[in-house]
Amino acid sequence: VFANLARAPEDPILGVTVAFNKDPSPSKLNLGVGAYRTEEGKPLVLNVVRQAEKLLVNDISRNKEYIPIVGLADFNKLSAKLILGANSPAIQENRVATVQCLSGTGSLRVGAEFLARHYHQRTVYITQPTWGNHPKVFALAGLSVKTYRYYDPTTRGLNFLGLLEDLGSAPSGAIVLLHACAHNPTGVDPTPAQWEQIRQLIRSKGLLPFFDSAYQGFASGSLDRDAEPVRMFVADGGECLVAQSYAKNLGLYGERVGALSIVCKAADVASRVESQLKLVIRPMYSSPPIHGASIVATILKDRNMYHQWTIELKEMADRIISMRQQLFNALKSRGTPGDWSHIIKQIGMFTFTGLNSKQVAFMTKEYHIYMTSDGRISMAGLSSRTVPHLADAIHAAVTR
Ligand code: LMR
Asked: What are the TM regions of this chain, as residue ranges (predicted)?
């Protein structure tokens, strides 16, 4: 019955890893997927995660029973606190419904399904460009996806006027997807003053903000600072949704651990929202997995482990910042034509290089460097050892 089935294309991001794995070259370099690597090019399991896992394994009172549909209660409370701040009035007033989900993507999808069922506006605005999975997550949930201007290719910075104009002409009530920090793929974030203007516009037009927070702690190295934009929106008493991922900041990629919080105006609304979220989750995957969320909860509730996490997180963020400087210096010393200052100005895991798809294809073919065709480089995949190879490839791509 499937004889005539067309072959689906590989995923534009995860497919890069598939191609990378097939390449036998010893000098190959995967800068596609946003996953942290050490200076040795190896995946990293944080020490604090190993420590939490040991505690969990040694605790024989633990079992593998199903956890509730909404996930672990501790994990949910601590996750809301992490993103909204320990003293958030919304938390103190019990106005936040938080459910444990399958990392950032799962949190976005549960949020999108909930909105498609219960929200009157069916249009969601996403940044142009954005993470390739965003439009699919929302469209498959039944929402209509539109874009708003965000990135200016000429300055390789924010197109702030375009953003204000597009959100200003969005229909009242429309959902607006915002990257909480470290915008993917561009690495370009609004300044605090610009965020404040965005907030005022969104509130004055009655738009509904939906934050994707996949990099808390990765942009600046500070968990609190990276949560500021979200907290700004919660402080005004209005509603918003937040999808959190622990893939990057705790290195729990494959554990698929994240949370969706819906901040409401009153406690009884939040409790009804939670009851409806259960109806979204139960037929989709019944209940979430236990292990990753237990690791997160163990770390977040222990003062020492939390502190250790902040140190390891800062080390990862600092290594990425140093890669930016090294790549910038390497291109400068080669006299590579063009202004590469955006490499040090952009933040988070990615640099949006400005290289076009032909140049990317050339770098893959000739230098075995793998990256997404939009010219995005995962700086977290780079090391001091591989910077010269990448700089050679970029130089060759732009001068040929
Ligand atoms: C990325 O953008 O590389 C990451 O968010 C990984 C993914 O799932 O695409």
From this structure: none
Question: Can you tell me which atom of ligand 1 is nearest the CA of 378?
Answer: 3
Q: In this structure, what DSSP letter does residue 170 have?
A: S
Structure tokens at 84: 């909204």
What is the chain's alpha carbon radius of gyration, rounded to the nearest angstrom?
21
Looking at this protein, which amino acid is placed at residue 65? E
370 secondary structure, DSSP code? E
Task: Please say whether the beta carbons of 206 and 173 come within 8 A.
Answer: yes
How many CA atoms lie within 13 Å of 9's alpha carbon, on the beta-carbon side? 4
Distance of CA 194 to the CA centre of its chain: 20
Q: Is the peptide bond before 171 cis (omega within 30 degrees of 0)?
A: no
- pLDDT at position 66 is 97
Catalytic residue among 131, 309, 340, 374: 131
ipTM value of the model? Answer: 0.93
Greatest Cα-to-Cα distance within the chain, rounded to the nearest angstrom: 64
Beta carbon of 129 within 6 Å of any ligand 1 atom: no
Across the chain, mean pLDDT equals: 97
H/E stretch holding 351 reads: strand 350-352
Ranges of beta strands (E only) in 174-291 are: 175-179, 208-213, 240-245, 258-263
Instruction: State the average pLDDT over residues 261-265.
Output: 98
Write the pLDDT tens digit of every residue in 16-63: 999 999 999 999 999 999 999 999 999 999 999 999 999 999 999 999
Query: How many Å apart are CA 220 and CA 369, to the nearest integer?
Result: 27
The CA angle 208-192-382, to the nearest 5 degrees, is 100
Q: How far apart are CA 19 and CA 329, in angstroms?
A: 29
**Distance between CA atoms of residues 361 and 372, nearest Å:** 9
131 catalytic residue (yes or no): yes
Query: CB of 131 closer than 6 A to ligand 1?
Result: yes
Q: At what angle do helices 160-168 and 192-204 cross, to 10 degrees?
A: 10
Please state, in angstroms and rounded to a whole number, the distance separating the CA atoms of residues 265 and 286. Answer: 28
Q: Is the peptide bond before 185 cis (omega within 30 degrees of 0)?
A: yes
Structure confidence at residue 161 as a pLDDT band (50, 70, 90)? very high
Between the CA of 34 and the centroid of ligand 1 the distance, in Å, is 5
Distance 252 CA to ligand 1 centre (A): 13
Q: SS3 helix, strand, coil % of the chain, rounded to 5?
A: 50, 15, 40
86-99: per-residue pLDDT in tens? Answer: 999 999 999 999 99
Lookup: tokens for 304: 């020492």
